[in-house]
């Protein structure tokens, strides 16, 4: 029987790692995800997890150790956040290029300067071009589940790409919620043993990994990473379906909430989705036709699902805790790409909010709604809007 | 010019690598170095004067690649597909039978 325990998302991520039975975990402590490797090191020390726990001197080394271990053919895990993820940056490309199904838990945190340990998505969003799959959790249960699903997708032969699962710093990492821990046997059946077909260490069949590619081969190698990302869309759907069958919890690349007759749809990711759903309920009571949509999967970007969502609304209001300079938020860029050649498309209005852990309240969302309603009425509005900005101190 | 002693290897590896790319661009058999022609980034190339050569083999011994092999009469043969133009052979040659000249295409 699955047990329910009250825990933080950091502990949920550690439990997910324990259930997935990685053979090597390499990690360096960083706020807010420090508790993840701490908890895993307890599991290893208590003999509950049979794995090598490597204490490294930086995140650059942590991910390098994971690349080495994964190339040797075992399941690996690490956790990080913010500057730590940024320090992993160059190795993230290597992991994806070498097609190693490493999984990272990321406590989504703002990037310096100024130094800030609180939540936004700038760390993982900045790594969107590395080739890694990206999942975003709304709550602690999703943090656990999505890590298991991430392994399932990453290790699929048609994908073989590393994956990161983001959960919001402090809002989730340090907040307790009841989390259902699935049965080990069911997880074993769901994930199976990791049996690498290509990347493994076998002295009787020597291979070269991390090869040099001349111009004659490099482009093809990069194309295979693109192709694997494209394949991942279908594999993710299959993994979600199988997860639901086994564990009863349903996941979708884009989860829609009260979108059926909505004129304005708020689109967001991570824990903010909970607030926005609540806000939609609040507006619906007043008879305002709004809906919400949550991006569970950000890479590969669910283009078809976005197109289907866009058909339902007159205005898409993107609520983003990241900033891509000159463009607005990263979602704005991705939504534009998905809809640019559609004959009928809704207006897209971008909202930057909640950076560096600033609370996103109903009052902020009212501010966004007012702008979205103007767009709905055909009035001219700014494409990119900063919400909750303290203009008086600027 | 004598035939490269690596001809069979080159053909075998070329065949393997013309087939489907493995995930992660893994080289599944040894020998990719004979396919990747590393001579392409050379600036200076060794020019050989057979009349001055005393067949001491110093160039053959010192070539770090090795891109020099010996023909039937034990004269050195330069494999320009792999010679990077480092000039060690010219430097070691006691009779100046090898000189480095700027590569022209």
Any chance you could write out the topology, listing elements then pairs?
The complex is a heterodimer of chains A (394) and B (105).
Chain A: E1 3-7, H1 9-20, E2 24-27, H2 35-45, E3 52-55, H3 59-71, E4 76-80, H4 82-87, H5 89-97, E5 103-108, H6 122-125, E6 133-136, H7 140-154, E7 163-168, E8 177-181, H8 184-191, H9 215-247, E9 254-257, E10 264-269, H10 272-285, E11 290-295, E12 297-299, H11 303-310, E13 315-320, H12 330-339, E14 347-352, H13 362-376, E15 384-386
Helix pairs in contact in A: 1-2, 1-7, 3-5, 7-9, 11-12
Chain B: H1 7-18, H2 32-35, E1 44-48, H3 58-62, E2 68-70, E3 76-78, H4 88-92, E4 98-102
Antiparallel strand pairs in B: 1-4, 2-3
Feature tags:
heterodimer; A: 394 residues; alpha/beta; Rossmann fold; 2 domains; 7-stranded mixed beta sheet; 6-stranded mixed beta sheet; 15 strands; 40% helix; 19% strand; B: 105 residues; alpha+beta; Alpha-Beta Plaits; two-stranded antiparallel ribbon; 4 helices; 25% helix; elongated; iron-sulfur (chain B); iron (chain B); PorD_KorD (chain B)
Textual characterization of the structure:
Chain A: Keywords: Oxidoreductase, Pyruvate. Chain A: Residues 16-239 form the Pyruvate flavodoxin/ferredoxin oxidoreductase pyrimidine binding domain. Chain A: Heterotetramer of one alpha, one beta, one delta and one gamma chain. The complex is a heterodimer of chains A (394) and B (105). Chain A is an alpha/beta fold. Chain A has 2 domains: 3-247, Rossmann fold; 254-393, Rossmann fold (3-Layer(aba) Sandwich). Chain A has 13 helices and 15 strands. Chain A has helices at residues 9-20, 35-45, 59-71, 82-87, 89-97, 122-125, 140-154, 184-191, 215-247, 272-285, 303-310, 330-339, 362-376, and strands at 3-7, 24-27, 52-55, 76-80, 103-108, 133-136, 163-168, 177-181, 254-257, 264-269, 290-295, 297-299, 315-320, 347-352, 384-386. Chain A has a 7-stranded mixed sheet, sandwiched between helices. In chain A, strands 9-11-10-13-14-15 form a 6-stranded mixed sheet, with helices on both faces. In chain A, α2 links the parallel β2 (24-27) and β3 (52-55). The longest helix of chain A is centred in the middle third of the chain and has 33 residues, at 215-247. Chain A is globular. The relative contact order of chain A is 0.11. The model of chain A has no long low-confidence stretch (mean pLDDT 96). With 105 residues, chain B is of the alpha+beta class. Chain B has a domain at 38-104: Alpha-Beta Plaits. Chain B has 4 helices and 4 strands. Chain B has helices spanning 7-18, 32-35, 58-62, 88-92; strands at 44-48, 68-70, 76-78, 98-102. A two-stranded antiparallel sheet of chain B has the order 1-4. A two-stranded antiparallel sheet of chain B has the order 2-3. In chain B, β2 and β3 (76-78) form a beta hairpin. The longest helix of chain B has 12 residues, at 7-18. The two termini of chain B are 20 Å apart. The model of chain B has no long low-confidence stretch (mean pLDDT 86).
